[in-house]
Specification:
8-stranded mixed sheet; alpha+beta; 33% helix; globular; 19 strands
Length: 430
């Protein structure tokens, strides 16, 4: 179409959730996705839906939570094992997830990314999702009116244009429009450059049945309905696996600091060939590095090389409130606040963005999209920035203090941040 009341750039979970929330409130929202197909492979990851995510999804559209739950696995327990470099167990800690549900009102579910994406896509009519529509820029103008006094021209790569009264930029961490929104009409503040960490991650989704016969006593091997996290005695080295998906799916992750990467990985980093799916020889290299951890070896042994996705973890500098919007144009999801995935909050905060934006636009009424955008930025910026900072600081495999007082201080800080993320979020208008 050449006109839409609200144009959403990006057809990932953030953009689809935003479109669902807007359409549930009567706005004619359309999604413009650069890829030729909306439903795609993903990156072999799982999404952890925590209490704040459930509240946000319910606020987006009450039909969303049951659809996501149907695709996921309810988590009953979380286990943490602290190991030495040689695989010896120093201590093990377990927590009943029922307490988390009691404290914050919702159980945790883990869902494969592609299943959550598909569940969101089913909520939207086919005719409002437009693929092969890569955004290249926008212009804010006056004199065009569907809801408010300002209008936007969205420019697409094939020289098409779409007129809209509000533009939602939700095209991910590598957003094509983030810099334009963040710096338009303002003193140059930066915030657009990626901040790579030194941590490398490998992950995959596999049928749990492939682990049949592997002992769940091994650190890193989860039981049904459980999460298993292992620190491996080196800074940034960790194993994570969990039940993910109603069909019996295991999601697993291995992390290493770049300084501890096998020679083949360092060579790939130097040549620019690191990243993506299916690099030959990667399983053998990881088996060598994790040779002291039988759980990691079992996970690698149950996974085809083509199923393993690798990346360097990164985020971007948190944006100030005025960088979240440009008149009736707003940033949302990873386009606004890409996060290191250590706490599983990137998608949850994107769902919060979607719910709050839709409600801000509804509440603005005749005041129009620019007023809604300013309120949305005011509500979202500081919260997202705090969770971004926590996610970067509390990276996977961060060494546990050896002294008890320091461990207790770390625990108090963790509980404070978990309460802020899970418990303190209340959707706008609730």
């Amino acid at each position: 179409p050449d006109r839409a009341q609200v144009a959403v750039v990006g057809g990932g979970p953030a953009g689809l959730a935003a479109a669902c929330a807007l359409r549930a409130r009567g706005f004619d929202a359309h999604v413009f996705e650069a890829s030729e197909a909306l439903l795609r492979r993903g990156t072999g990851t799982g999404i952890m839906v925590s209490a704040n995510g459930w509240r946000a999804l319910e606020a987006c559209d009450e039909a969303l939570p049951p659809a996501i739950r149907e695709a996921g696995a309810k988590i009953s327990r979380q286990n943490i094992t602290v190991c030495d470099e040689d695989g010896g167990v120093r201590r093990a800690i377990g927590s009943d997830a029922a307490q988390m549900e009691k404290d914050y009102g919702h159980a945790q579910y883990n869902v494969p990314w592609h299943d959550a994406h598909a569940a969101l896509a089913k909520m939207l009519p086919d005719e409002v999702v437009h693929c092969g529509a890569k955004a290249t820029g926008y212009a804010v103008e006056t004199g065009f009116d569907l809801v408010g006094e300002e209008s936007v021209r969205l420019m697409l790569e094939d020289d098409r244009e779409v007129r809209c009264t509000m533009l939602v930029v939700a095209d991910g961490a590598g957003s094509a429009l983030r810099a334009q929104v963040a710096n338009s009409g303002k003193v140059e503040k930066g915030g657009d450059d990626a901040r790579p960490t030194s941590q490398l991650l490998w992950n995959a989704l596999i049928p749990t049945e492939r682990l049949q016969g592997v002992s769940t006593e091994l650190p890193g091997i989860h039981r049904p309905g459980e999460v298993e996290f292992v620190t491996c005695g080196k800074d940034g080295k960790a194993i994570l696996s969990f039940d993910s998906g109603a069909g019996g799916i295991t999601s697993w992750y291995l992390t290493l600091d770049e300084s501890d990467a096998p020679e083949a990985v360092r060579a790939a980093l130097s040549s620019g060939e690191f990243g993506g799916f299916g690099h030959a020889g990667r399983v053998d290299a990881l088996k060598e590095e994790f040779s002291a951890f039988q759980g990691a070896l079992a996970l690698l042994g149950a996974t085809e090389e083509t199923e393993i996705f690798e990346r360097r973890l990164a985020d971007r500098q948190p944006l100030s409130e005025d960088q979240w919007y440009d008149g009736p144009v707003v940033l949302l999801g990873d386009a606004a606040h890409p996060m290191v995935p250590s706490q599983g909050q990137g998608t949850m905060v994107a769902f919060e963005d979607a719910a709050d934006l839709a409600e801000c636009l509804k509440a603005a009424g005749v005041a129009g999209p620019a007023v809604a955008a300013a309120r949305y930025a005011r509500v979202r910026a500081s919260r997202a920035a705090r969770i971004q900072r926590w996610s970067r600081d509390a990276y996977m495999g961060r060494p546990s203090p050896r002294l008890l007082p320091m461990r207790l201080m770390r625990l108090v800080s963790l509980r404070r941040e978990v309460k802020f993320a899970y418990g303190d979020y209340q959707p706008v208008g609730s």
